[in-house]
Every structure is written in structure tokens, then in C-alpha cells.
């Protein structure tokens, strides 16, 4: 609790500093407009404006910070109200505000609701007073009935949805580990992809069966027609390859 | 004179680019799959999440062949009765007649690195280059062996640097295509210079958004291969 208070105090101090900066900036602006209106030019005017807006931005940033205590939860209580001029107030507001009264800050010192809201409330109250007790209880019963009915509908719907989603989660298997392995092995190593095509460009094939051949010697023996398959004599292969034009 | 200098200049700038690490030669990858019946839901979600919202998702229909180049057998390997792992090269072209003018694509993919549990994606070297159709003849003459082939048909989405493909894998390129499985392959990948770990983190966040429809993981198919398959 104490920590919270300390926190609050620190925050208020910080915001006071920022507010003072803002006040000074606004004061300078007022001064310029009042006394230098003949010589002031647009760039200086805009510069001053930018200064004020930067102060405002800084203040709102401070308010938006995460660790800022929520000041809207705090109430401002007027302790002393008097129509007479207040010396202290005059001093701290630099002569701008002589009294703290309803005419100056109507929003803070309001004790009645908003006129529009008050009107509507009066209307409703008049209407409520007009009907009899009997009619009121009847209306209440009717209203209750409707509300319970809607409540029932919602719970029923909710149950249905929950059942459905549970069902779906249980039922749907979207991937199969075994299939993943089959595909992996096929694409990576050709397992399961037997060679039985007749593509003219690819002449070197085993007569059916698996694509993988464990021994090159065996491989050469199985396709004697291919000169290139005489793997053990790599030098010869190279010579042969060099003689042929690769793009013939 | 200048024409002779050009290749060296190009080589120099390439080496320099390699040194300062600006070449996107690493592929950050997450993979998963989704059942055929559920793919519309995934497409719908991707449409909402990805950049090309206002247009329909880009479709592709490609054909890919994988070639292997084995190191020559020497005495040592013969004694060991085991050949060194072959170099795999992939050639891909579009099956769509509208793309007939597009070049073929030659791709080398390195070994996947899974890293520890903290690393969100799989990383593997990846080099792409465009080439003419004679690349197949060329590779064949080089002594490459065709290992396997498949057709891939699906949708492509983009989200910033990320590329998301949802595709169906078909055996070979016959007219009566038979799908390999009852699922679509889903891949989320980014090509970036090595050490771009921020990208991997972005990908992890994006993959989270697709759960539980698709579980995108780093899957080492090399390790899968050691498990007997059915």
C-alpha cells in the first residue's frame, strides 16, 4: 500500500514537471501573440506550436506508460468552496483564477446530472409511476420468462458447439507419420520409386526392380550395352566423355 | 584480351562472395505430410498466412530425375566390399506445356545436418543451377546413373523468404499416374547463407501456426532408411 502511494506521488511529481513545461510554453505563445503580433512570422509561430504539441505528446506518453497508476480511479473532492476571491489561488494561477467556483469549473463541481440525462430520467420515472402494481408485476414475469428462455437457448447452443468441437478434435487425423516417412524416403533416396519407364532420354535402367543398386560392378554387368557404365576404369570414361560433344 | 580476363574476374568475384558468405547455399528445411482428405484445410490456412493472398496459390507440375555418380572402385574399396556413397545430382523440369521455354534445373543437395534439439530446422547444402535440356545427355556421358525419377504436382506459397510447397508425389511420368501415398508432402524451406539462424527461428514460428494440421519436423531420411520399411 505504501509502495503504491509512493509510486503515485512520484507520478504526480513527474506530471507536474511536465505540466509546468507545458504551461510555460503556452504562456510564451500567449505573450508572443499579445505583444509581438506585428513582428511575428509564420515559422516562429509554428515552432512555438510544435513546442506545445511536443509537451502534450510527452505528457500523454507518460499517462500511457504501463506502470502509471490509473488516475481515473481517483476522485477529486472539493474541500472548500467560497464565492470570495482566494489569495492563494490567485497566486498559484498567476492572477488568472480568483475563485474556485461552479462558474469557472462547472464539470468538476457538478452535483446534478447532465440536463439531458436528467430530462430522460424524469420521463422514465413518470412512466414508472403511471402504471399500477399489478401491471408492473405482470410485465416483470413476462420479462423474466423471455430472459430465461434466451438463456436456455444459449446454453443449449454452447453445449452443442462444445460437443461438436470435441468430436472434431477426436475424429480428424490430419497427418500420418507413416506417410511422411514414405514420402521422405521416396524423395530423398528413391525408395519405393521403381524404375519402369520408357523415357528415351534416360536409357540407363535396371530391368525393373528397385532403383538402388548396391554394387557398381553388378551394375555394369547388368547393362552391358552402355559404354559409360564401365565404372572401374574411370580414365577411359573421361576420354570418351571428352570426345563426345555434350550439346550434340 | 578482355574476353580472356572475364572468366578470371567472374571467378574472383565468386570466390569473394563465398568468402564474405553472401551466397545462399544452405537450405533450412522442415518437412511433414498431410492426408489427401485434409489438404484443402491446409491450403486454406496457407492462403491466409502467406504473402500471395489475393491471387490463387501458384501451382507446379514438375518431373525430377536423380542421377548418381559413383567414385571409381579402387583396391581398397574392393577389399571392403562396399562402395563409397555416390554423389547425387537432381535434374528437374516442368511438365507444364506452358513452361516449355523454362530451363531445366540441376541441383545438388548435401547431407542433412540435424544439429541438437535447440536448432529448429534441418540444414543442408544446396546448389541450384539452370541448364539446357542436354544436361541429361551430358550427365549420362559423364558416367552418371539414373537412380530414380518421380513427378511432383502441387502448390507453392511464399511468406517473406520462406517457401512452402504442398505437393503430391507420383511414381514416374506415365499417363496413368499413381500417387505414392495417400498424403501430400509439405515442405517449408529457406535458402540462405550459412549461419542465418534467425531464419530458422522464423520457420519454427511459422510451423507452429500450421499445427496441428501438419507437424513439420526435421526429418533425417538417411536415418529413416536404416529402419526397415514396408
Automatic annotation (TrEMBL), chain A:
<keyword id="KW-0010">Activator</keyword>
<protein>
    <recommendedName>
        <fullName>Mediator of RNA polymerase II transcription subunit 8</fullName>
    </recommendedName>
</protein>
<dbReference type="GO" id="GO:0016592">
    <property type="term" value="C:mediator complex"/>
</dbReference>
<dbReference type="InterPro" id="IPR019364">
    <property type="entry name" value="Mediatior_Med8_fun/met"/>
</dbReference>
<comment type="similarity">
    <text>Belongs to the Mediator complex subunit 8 family.</text>
</comment>
<dbReference type="Pfam" id="PF10232">
    <property type="entry name" value="Med8"/>
</dbReference>
<comment type="function">
    <text>Component of the Mediator complex, a coactivator involved in the regulated transcription of nearly all RNA polymerase II-dependent genes. Mediator functions as a bridge to convey information from gene-specific regulatory proteins to the basal RNA polymerase II transcription machinery. Mediator is recruited to promoters by direct interactions with regulatory proteins and serves as a scaffold for the assembly of a functional preinitiation complex with RNA polymerase II and the general transcription factors.</text>
</comment>
<dbReference type="GO" id="GO:0006357">
    <property type="term" value="P:regulation of transcription by RNA polymerase II"/>
</dbReference>
<comment type="subunit">
    <text>Component of the Mediator complex.</text>
</comment>
<keyword id="KW-0539">Nucleus</keyword>
<dbReference type="GO" id="GO:0000978">
    <property type="term" value="F:RNA polymerase II cis-regulatory region sequence-specific DNA binding"/>
</dbReference>
<dbReference type="GO" id="GO:0070847">
    <property type="term" value="C:core mediator complex"/>
</dbReference>
<dbReference type="GO" id="GO:0003712">
    <property type="term" value="F:transcription coregulator activity"/>
</dbReference>
<keyword id="KW-0805">Transcription regulation</keyword>
<keyword id="KW-0804">Transcription</keyword>
TrEMBL record, chain B:
<keyword id="KW-0804">Transcription</keyword>
<dbReference type="GO" id="GO:0016592">
    <property type="term" value="C:mediator complex"/>
</dbReference>
<comment type="function">
    <text>Component of the Mediator complex, a coactivator involved in the regulated transcription of nearly all RNA polymerase II-dependent genes. Mediator functions as a bridge to convey information from gene-specific regulatory proteins to the basal RNA polymerase II transcription machinery. Mediator is recruited to promoters by direct interactions with regulatory proteins and serves as a scaffold for the assembly of a functional preinitiation complex with RNA polymerase II and the general transcription factors.</text>
</comment>
<comment type="subunit">
    <text>Component of the Mediator complex.</text>
</comment>
<dbReference type="GO" id="GO:0003712">
    <property type="term" value="F:transcription coregulator activity"/>
</dbReference>
<keyword id="KW-0010">Activator</keyword>
<dbReference type="InterPro" id="IPR019095">
    <property type="entry name" value="Mediator_Med18"/>
</dbReference>
<keyword id="KW-0805">Transcription regulation</keyword>
<comment type="similarity">
    <text>Belongs to the Mediator complex subunit 18 family.</text>
</comment>
<dbReference type="GO" id="GO:0006357">
    <property type="term" value="P:regulation of transcription by RNA polymerase II"/>
</dbReference>
<dbReference type="GO" id="GO:0006369">
    <property type="term" value="P:termination of RNA polymerase II transcription"/>
</dbReference>
<dbReference type="Pfam" id="PF09637">
    <property type="entry name" value="Med18"/>
</dbReference>
<keyword id="KW-0539">Nucleus</keyword>
<protein>
    <recommendedName>
        <fullName>Mediator of RNA polymerase II transcription subunit 18</fullName>
    </recommendedName>
</protein>
<dbReference type="GO" id="GO:0070847">
    <property type="term" value="C:core mediator complex"/>
</dbReference>
